[in-house]
Structures are given as C-alpha cells and as structure tokens.
Amino acid sequence: MAKITFITSNNEKITVEATAGSVMELAVNNNIQGIDGDCGGVCSCATCHVFVAPEDVDKVGVASEIETDMLELADDANEYSRLCCQISVSDAIDNVVLTVAK
Amino acid sequence: MGKCEFADAFKEEREKSGIGKMDDQGDPVVMLLKHKDVRKAAHNYKSFSSEAVPGRIVVPSEVNIRTTRQIPFEVDPPMHKEYRSLLDAWFKRPLQDAYKKELTTIISTVLDDVLSRDKVDVVTDLALVIQSRALTLLLNVPFSKSVKWISWGTHVFRSEGEALDGDKAAILYNYIDEEIDKAIANPSGDLYSTLLAAEVEGKKLTKEEVKGVLILTFAGGRDTVINALTNSISYFSANKEALEQLHSTPEIINNAVEEFVRYFSPLTHMGRVVTEDTTVCEHAVQADSRISLCWASANRDEKVFENANEIVLDRKINPHVGFGFSHHNCLGATHARQIMRITLKLLAEKVGDITVLEAEENIENLGEFTRKVGYNSLKATFKKR
C-alpha cells in the first residue's frame, strides 16, 4: 500500500492510496483535477504531467528516453517533471508528493 | 480476402532524406516524415503557423472552398489557448459515465443491426452510422439529426474522383448557418447555444466564430472516425484471433485502440505555413511556404516504434501522433477514443467472426507517395459469438 499526495492547480492537497497500477490511473480514479490520462497510459498524450517533490525524486526514479522526449516538448516542464502514467504504484513510492502541472 | 495491409508509404524517403515533396493546387508542401521532426515542428508554432489564410494549412488546401476560420484549429497561441480553454470542458464530456452509457447504446444498436443482416458495407452501414449518431451526443442535439448527416455520405469535403468538392462543402456550411440561426431563435443546451452564450477575452463569440468551431467538429471527425472504425474491422477479418484476444483480455482494449490509431493514422498529415526562412530536417524552407506534419509517417518511424509495421494489440509504450501533437492535438480525441473503445469492447462481446467479402481501397495521392488510408467500400459478413 502506498499513500500518494497530489497538489492540484488550486492548491488543494489530496492524499490517496493504492497497491498496484499506475499513478495516472490512481489519479483518474480519484478525480484528481488536471490529470486526464487521455491515452490511457501509453505515453502518447502528456495529459498526466506532474512535478515530483525534490526530496522524492530518488524514490520515484528517472524518466525513460521516450518519456523524456515527450517532456522536452511539454510546456513548463522542468527537472522534476514526470508523466505519471509511467510511474508504477508500489511501496517504494509511499508518501511521495506530486504537484499537478497546469 | 485475408489481407489487412496498410503499407508504410514513406519508409524510403523518411530514412533517406527525412522529407517528401508534393504539389497541391500550385501551393507546394514539404512533408516532414520523421517522428522527432514532426513533433518538434508541431510544437514550434512561431516558425510553423496554423493561423494562415483559412483553409491553407489543410492538405489538400481548402482556400478555394471556404473563408471561415476553423477554431481553435487555425489559431496560434496565445489566442488558441483562450479558445481551447473554453472548449475543453465540453469536448471532455465523453469521459462522463452518462455519456459513455448513451454511446454504448448507440453502438450496440448498430452492431445488433449489422449482426441481423446477411451482408453489410462496413463503411456505410456501420462506420458512417456510428459516427453520425455518436456526433449527436458530442453536439448534445436530438438523435434524429443524424438522419440527415448519414444522408450526406462518407465525406463532407471530399467526393470520389475529386479531392475537393465546393458544392458538397456548401451543403455543410449552409446547414451550420441554419442551425446557428435556429439556436439564436430558440436557445437550448446544445453546442450551438453554448457557444453563442460563451465569451472569450470578455467578448461574446461571433456567429462566424461559432461556425468555425462547428465546421471543425463536423469535418475533423468525419472520415477520420469512419476510417478508424472500418480499418479496425478489416483487421479483425484478417486476424481472427484478435477479437478472441480482446474478449479474453478486455484490459488491453485501450492499448489496442491507441495501436489502431497509430497504425492506421486516419489523418495522414496536417500543414503549417512557414513564418520565417528556416530549415526542416536540414532542408531550407522559405517564409510563406508550406510544410506538413506527416503523422502517418511518424507513426511508422522504426527509431521510435519496435516492429512499427505490425499491429501489436497490447503495445505498452506508444508515443504515436495519430491525434496530432502539442497545442493543436485533436479536440475530438476524447470522443473518438470513446467510440473506438466501446466499439472494440462490444465487438469482442457480441461478434464471433467477421469475414470481408469485397474491398475497394481508398488510396490518397500525395505527390511522390500513394497511401492507403481506408476503404471506399468494405463488404463483410458478421457472425454472432
């Protein structure tokens, strides 16, 4: 079981839990504003862009080349950017904080 | 009839020069063929603009058949974002449970009708009907409106033997004018009325702006959705195990939809007008010339997609550009994806076998390239599971 906190664009903090699946699915299932996950998680749409809290970067890990290429062309991306469809839910990411991109 | 091959028309040139060239009614187009170049140019609206003379970014150009600017499609940022923000909530409605339920009823009814017949034309009896009836949901208008749209046939702008048909386009434009006038006289909860009441930057949308959104909604989702549906059916005929796979593992339906969109790329390419002398793929292009972003070629780029010329139903990572890329990604994609997801789900539940009997291919001529984009006609039998 991992607890994940999302901070939405209106500064709402929402903590949700899951044991499996992707972080994008978790967000969509909990109606987290700003995470659409249009493509269902195949890394094609960039509608699940989040910023990982700096202290959680090691826990979450780095983006693959395909994800990095996608993020390079996303508006407002920075070194903390991830597409959360590419982050798997597991104990390893318990208590991470993700800020939803606008 | 066992084949469902949609060849990669661009492989040789993509790997050799990275660009293709075609003439289009005297306004030539340099086609970008590589995935990376296509995405970069799509993102760079300052050098490659969508805000040219209305119709010019479309290939074949529609400059001679329309003057209305399609919105937000033919507007660059930052104004583009104003329109898009206004429209996004409406065009994300297909994510709502009630919408999905109604769409399921529409598609289920069409499939039941198809299953009750000896033989059908997939293009006119299935794809056109589903597309038209589903559009009533997207516009939030009465179901009965779809009867007229079905009567228009498979293309709104295009007709056989003639790339652009001004008379046919006028039918659509006049229809939209009439519907807007009706909405002004009797406002309701449909898209026409919603747009007429909406404001951008503190100003109410004009009739011309409303018309621009509606033309885009009608035309952009017409033959693209029809081709996606028809081509998928042809695949299930040629690959008998695929429907069974979707039946036994419905959790891959979403992956299958994205893979069909990648492989079939229902919209071959979209143009941009170059705003300054620059280069694309080390090739000089001049200000006021045209380039196109060739989604169909990018989607077969073997530098990005393993086994790019195969349909891998459960492909996990699929950064395709079948719905375009960046600011101008397809406004109707949420609706189109729901149509495809529900159709695949219901086909897997209801249909045991699809067999194509006769096929008439729809081949596009793009200068040095020819590309099969779909079918003009696809006669087939459907058997119940």
Q: Can you walk me through this structure?
A:
Chain A is an alpha+beta fold and 102 residues long. Chain A has a single domain (2-100), classed as Ubiquitin-like (UB roll) (Roll). Chain A contains 3 helices and 5 strands, in the order ββαβααββ. The longest helix of chain A is centred in the last third of the chain and has 8 residues, at 65-72. Chain A is globular. Chain B is α+β, with helices and mostly antiparallel strands and 385 residues long. Chain B is built from 14 helices and 12 strands. In chain B, strand 1 (19-22) and strand 2 form a beta hairpin. Chain B is globular and about 60 Å long. The relative contact order of chain B is 0.20. The model of chain B has no long low-confidence stretch (mean pLDDT 95). Chains A and B meet through helix 3 of A and helix 2, helix 12 and helix 14 of B. Chain A: InterPro entries: 2Fe-2S_ferredoxin-like_sf (IPR036010), 2Fe-2S_ferredoxin-type (IPR001041), Adrenodoxin-like (IPR001055), Beta-grasp_dom_sf (IPR012675).
Q: In a nutshell, what does this entry contain?
A:
The complex is a heterodimer of chains A (102) and B (385). Chain A has 102 residues and is of the alpha+beta class.
Alpha carbon gyration radius of chain B:
20 Å
Q: CATH H-level name of chain A... which superfamily?
A: Beta-grasp domain
Number of domains of chain B: 1
Please give the number of β-strands of chain B.
12
InterPro entries (chain A): 2Fe-2S_ferredoxin-like_sf, 2Fe-2S_ferredoxin-type, Adrenodoxin-like, Beta-grasp_dom_sf
Domain 2Fe-2S ferredoxin-type (chain A): 2-102
GO molecular function (chain A): 2 iron, 2 sulfur cluster binding; electron transfer activity; metal ion binding
Protein name (chain A): Ferredoxin, 2Fe-2S
Summary tags:
heterodimer, A: alpha+beta, Ubiquitin-like (UB roll), five-stranded mixed β-sheet, globular, B: 385 residues, alpha+beta, three-stranded antiparallel β-sheet, 14 helices, 16% strand, Cyt_P450_sf (chain B)
